[in-house]
Amino acid sequence: MSLASFAVFDTQPSDEFVSAWIAHISETGYPETFGNVTTTHPPRDGKVVLLSSDIKVPVLRREGQEWVPCPICSPTGKKFKVGRCAWFPGEKAVRFIGHKCAARHFGELYAEAEERFKVEARCRQLVAAWASLLDRREALLDLIDEARPIAEALYFVREQIDDQAPGFSDFLYTDLAKRQGELSIKNDTGLRDQKGQVILETVVLGQVYGYVFLKRGFAPQNVLREARAFLATMDTPLPPWSPGSTDDSATLEVLARGGQAIKMMSAVRDTVSLIDTAQRFFGNFTLALLERWGRNEQSPFRSLTFTRSDKQILLRSVSFAGEHYANALVPDAALASLPYRANALDPLTSERPI
Questions:
Q1: Rounded to the nearest 10 degrees, what angle do helices 108-135 and 248-279 cross at?
Q2: In contact, 212 and 206? CB cutoff 8 Å
Q3: What span, in angstroms and rounded, lies between the C-alpha atoms of 269 and 251?
Q4: Are 59 and 29 in contact (CB under 8 A)?
Q5: Backbone torsion region of residue 206, taken as left when φ is above 0, otherwise alpha when ψ lies between -120 and 50, otherwise beta
Q6: C-alpha span between 98 and 122 (Å, rounded)
């Protein structure tokens, strides 16, 4: 193969160019034959800018299933199967380089290039995620405004229980979390094993749903309020950013505010799921199951009453954690159906690095 050099890239190649190059590699198995790709040896001290993540070349498409020549250490010989697209600004050239060879050849310069590539890949993802969130902002605001009264009503019930029966929620949550919500007892089968020990069988009484309602710090309305406040800040757009940007302030803002958008969206999804789960704690099945378990001597309770009627929750408990009593009001909103907004809570666009 004859070596060639093309000093035609005054600026970092566009994402469109890189995508077309990667497509060519996938289709042909020849990264070095794409238009204007340089195959000569690069200088050791020249700056390198990585344009892609690791690419496994489909060598079965190459003549004789040969490996790819590496312009760094073996421009005319078979050398590697995994490489990366790279730009060399000092030469205004692009090359396809073996990732291991490049790491050895450029040393610290390659490590710096890797860090820059990770930052750019993250910024690409965040810019796309921001645009995706902006497109559905109104639907998300509507969902938050309808879900907040439900969250606030659930918190109101929890607050009453904490005020009237201090410590009960922590006590019961800890016990249920240890069991992952599954309530079971051990029964004597009347049989003994070869060592004469009693054989016990585990009888599962049932699964307690929604006990996250009892978890310390349960306050879903706060997350929704903060999310709404963040969505209001999106009236101020992200600064202009593109790969190869030398504006560090723009990069830092994209990373900070874009990262907040990802976290906010994830928090809203988790919170809507949390509200839906917490509502299940008030189901007649769950409360009846807790009472049944409370009557068993293997539970931590001496006695337990936990019922919901009309708009009230009645709790009477005697356990090794003490005596507890609460009679809490349950607003209609606490058990209202959550709103549905098509696509509002879909994951944000998450593009893979080029």
A1: 50
A2: no
A3: 27
A4: yes
A5: left
A6: 23
276-313 pLDDT tens trace: 999 999 998 999 999 999 998 889 999 999 999 888 99
DSSP 8-state secondary structure symbol assigned to residue 306? E
What does the chain come to in residues? Answer: 354
For the record, the structure tokens of 188 come out as 């004597």
Half-sphere exposure of 255 (CA within 13 A, CB side): 12
Quick one: pLDDT at residue 342? Answer: 61
Nearest to 321 by CA among 297, 301, 303: 301
Q: What is the DSSP string of 271-290?
A: HHHHHHHHHGGGSHHHHHHH
Compute CA distances 243 → 38, 125, 347, whole Å: 21, 12, 24
Query: 254-257: long-range contacts (C-beta < 8 A, 24 or more apart)?
Result: 254/123, 254/126, 254/127, 255/119, 255/122, 255/123, 255/126, 257/130, 257/233
Query: How many other CB atoms are there within 10 angstroms of residue 106's CB atom?
Result: 23
Rounded distance between C-alpha atoms, residue 91 and residue 6, angstroms = 9
Quick check: 70 and 104 in contact, CB under 8 A?
Answer: no
pLDDT digits (tens, 9 = 90+) for 90-140: 999 999 998 888 888 888 999 999 999 999 999 999 999 999 999 999 999
- State both tokens at 316: 């009477």
Predicted local distance difference test score (pLDDT) of residue 340: 75
pLDDT digits 0-9 by tens, 258-273: 999 999 999 999 999 9
